[in-house]
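Worked example 2:
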Amino acid sequence: METEKTAHLIRYGTIASLVFCVAVAGFFHFAPAYDAPAAMATVPPAAAVAQPAPAECLPSGNGAPCIPFDKIQEMMDAQPDAPDPIPTNPATANEETI
C-alpha cells in the first residue's frame, strides 16, 4: 500500500514538473524581447572641448582635456631634484657586525 502511494506521488510529481517546465518555456518563447526605442539608442555627440593640437599635448586617457607639454614641464620643474631621505631602520640599531 505504501509503495503504491509513493509511486503515485512520484508519477504526479514528474508530470507536474514537466508541465511547469513547459509553461516556463512557453512564457519565455512568447514573451516579447526588450528593444530600446530608436530615440534612446542613439546618443548625441558631446560638445567639442577646445584642445591644443595633438602634437602639443598629452592625452589624459580618462576623457579629460589633454595636458599641454608646457604644463607638464612646469610640474616636473616644480618637483625637488633630491629624493626624500630614507629613515634608518630601528630594528637594525642593535645588530652586531661580524
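The mean pLDDT is 77. The first strand starts at residue 57 and ends at 58.
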